Amino acid sequence: MNGLRILCLNYEYPPVGGGGGRIAHRINAELVRRGHQVRVQTAGLRHLPSSEVVEGVEIFRTESFRKKEDTCTVAEMALFLLTSLGPTLKHIRRWKPHVVHAHFAVPTGALAWAAHRITGVPYILTAHLGDVPGGVPEQTAGLFRLVMPFTRPIWRRAAAITAVSTFVAELAEKAYGRQTEVVLNGIPLSPRPEIHAHHPPKIVMVGRLSVQKNPLLAIRALALLRDLEWEFQVIGDGPLRGEMEQEAAAAGLSDRIRFSGWQDSTSVQASMRDSDILLLTSLSEGLPMAAIEALDAGLAIVSSRIGGVTDVVENEINGAVCDLAPESFAAGLRPLLSDADALIRRREASSLRAGRFDIRATAESYERILRGVAKP
After folding, report:
1. Cβ atoms of 185 and 23 closer than 8 Å
2. Residue 95 CB neighbour total at 10 angstroms
3. pLDDT digits (tens, 9 = 90+) for 116-158
4. What domains can be seen in the chain, in order of their start residue?
5. CA angle 94, 100, 104 (to 5 degrees)
6. Peptide bond just before 288 cis, omega within 30 deg
7. What angle do CA 163, 167, 168 make, to 5 degrees?
8. Cα(168)–Cα(313) distance, rounded to whole angstroms?
9. How far apart are CA 48 and CA 58, in angstroms?
10. Of 197, 211, 229, 222, which is closest to residue 138 (Cα–Cα)?
């Protein structure tokens, strides 16, 4: 068997969703470059085309009645499953894929499981943080108490299971008892940047301004660093943006903080390459894409002390790992903001670490796994 026909199922795919969809597309585009054919079945929105080809990847979108690109309710996930089952079976019967690759065990795994039971085509699951109990407890603890009886067969029937980080793999094996292979998210790496320290140092935050990302902590930590010079750019939007702006104004920091809203990937990369430090205050992460992109840009990373960053940040090597308190983040940031040489050393260490996240290595691992389970 030479090139595979791979049917990728994903309830979120660019421009819908966040980092999980973006990494899925990067993997798919790299698999196409390696000589495989890839089709994607995903959720559609009315302003998006029902089908298109992007970097050789065929993308099919079916109306899912989802209202927003950046958020999805449980009801909308269920509607995605209902509206995508028919198109998925049509792809299998007419296009005859060798294997199905399902990103997000919840909810997409249910679609892959149903298609497998009907057609026999094997599927692999790629688990992200929210797919496993304990990954995002503040959001999914109650949900998993209800769905675990239904998710166990999905994991049991999968021909292979991968996870996007060491932390996610550990949670998955604990919950489901299945061997889970870690395949780190990857990106197309840029040429290594020339490392220097800006004056004043530039801090950037990238992502949805939601409870999980915990962005108010960033404002409170920076308020403790008024005595130092710095600039802070916030890329993204979300329900907590208004509170962030209010807290910044109350702390007298509005003239040092710039809210840029959502940006396209090219603009995000440019902003990162013009920064020194990525600030990551999340309550939970699987493997944050912003952190991988920060490594590629050669940024020091100051992060929460959470399991999902262990593959990306090493304390006092390429950044700082902090407790979820403003004082801890202020202590992690202070040496980097006050000592240009220390900042440059951390940035150089991040640039060296970026090599672990080359999309070519990620795609090679998925190719090996997909070939191992593909149906002739």
Report:
1. yes
2. 12
3. 999 999 999 999 888 887 776 666 656 677 777 888 999 999 9
4. 5-186+358-373 (3.40.50.2000), 202-356 (3.40.50.2000)
5. 135
6. no
7. 35
8. 16
9. 14
10. 211
